[in-house]
Amino acid sequence: MPTNSSISDEMLEHFQEDGFVVARGLLHDRDLQGWLKRLEQIVEGTVEPAEGMLVMKDVMVAKGAIRTDNAMEAIAKLQDYEHDPILDRYTTHPRILDCIERFVGHDVMTIHTMLINKPPNVDGRHPLHQDLLYFPFRPAHRIVAAWTALERVTVDNGCLTVVPGSHRGKLREHENLDWEYLNGGYFGAVDVEDELPRRVHLEMEPGDTAFFQPTLLHGSGRNRTAGYRRAISAHYASIDVTWSWRTRETYGRRYRILRGSSAGQEWQGDYETRNPIDPVSFFRAAQAKAPPSDQSS
Ligand SMILES: O=C(O)CCC(=O)C(=O)O
User: Fold this and answer.
1) Superfamily of domain 9-282
2) Measured in Å, how far apart are the chain's first and last C-alpha atoms?
3) Cα–ligand 1 centroid distance for 157 (angstroms)
4) Model pTM score
5) Ligand 1 and 231: CB distance under 6 A
6) For 47-86, what is each residue's pLDDT tens digit?
7) Best mutation site among 78, 90, 125, 160 for ligand 1, i.e. most ligand atoms within 8 A of its Cβ?
8) Which of 3-32 are b and which e, b meaning 16 or more Cβ less than 10 Å from the residue's Cβ?
9) Domain boundaries, the chain
10) Whose CA is nearest to atom 2 of ligand 1?
11) Which residue has its alpha carbon closest to ligand 1 atom 10?
12) pLDDT, tens only, 25-45
C-alpha cells in the first residue's frame, strides 16, 4: 500500500463489505479554508469561474420560491472545477490519492469534480441514487468517490445518507422524482422503499472524508440549520476501465491520469464496441403517481 495511505486493511474490508468507508481527519483545516475561500470568491464574483465550471443555482432560488440575502445562499453546486487551480488541489491532493490507490490500484485518473453547497432555507435534498448512472466507465468496482466535509456535517444540516451493502446490486433505474423542489439533474433510484430502513447517516467533522463505490445508494437530507453545509468531492477510476456508453461525447471533459506510469497524460483507453450501453435505458420516464416517500432524510 502507499506508505502514507490512511486506509488500513480493516477499512478496506469495510469498503468492500459495505460499499463505503470514512477516513477521519484526513485533510487539514488550512486546505479546507482555502477551498471555502475560493468558493466565496467565485460566488461573490471576485474570481471568474474557471473554464468549464458550472455555477449551479439552487432550484428554489431559480424558480423564485425564495429570496436570498446574499449570493452564497443561492448556490447549490460548483460542477467541474478541474480548471480552477485552487479547487483542483483537492483532486490531486496526495492524501486523497494515497487512499484512492488502495481502492482502485496504482494507475489512477480523475473523472469528475464538484463542490456541494447546501445553504439554509432551501430544500437541497439529494434523493437516493447511484453515481454510476452518470459515468460511462465500467466496471463499476474500478471507480470510487471521495467526499470531504468542509465543515461539520450532521443529520440536522443534511449529511450524506448511505445504504450499506447496496453497492452489490446492479445499476438501477432512476427517474426525475416529482418532489416540488428537486434540482433537475438530481435523479432518484426507483423502487427503493425496502432500502429506506437500512439507511445510515454519515456525520462527519471538517476534513473527514468518505470514500464510496458508484453503485452505493446514497443521498442527503435537508439542511435544517441556519448555517451552510459544504463539501468537496471528486471521482476517480483506474485507467484500465472501458468506455461503455454508445455515445463517445465527453462534453470537453478531460480524464487526467494522476498516478502510475502514465501520470500526466490523458486517458486514451478502450471503447466497448460489441455491446455498448445506452445510458438512457436507466431512466424511467416520468409518470403520474402518488407522492413519493422522503428517500433522503
Ligand atoms: O453532498 C451531497 O449532499 C450529496 C452528494 C451526492 O449525492 C454525490 O456526491 O453523489
Assistant:
1) q2cbj1_9rhob like domain (2.60.120.620)
2) 36
3) 13
4) 0.94
5) yes
6) 999 999 999 998 888 888 888 889 999 999 999 999 999 9
7) 160
8) eebbbeeebbebbeebbbbbbeebbeeebb
9) 9-282
10) 220
11) 131
12) 999 999 999 999 999 999 999
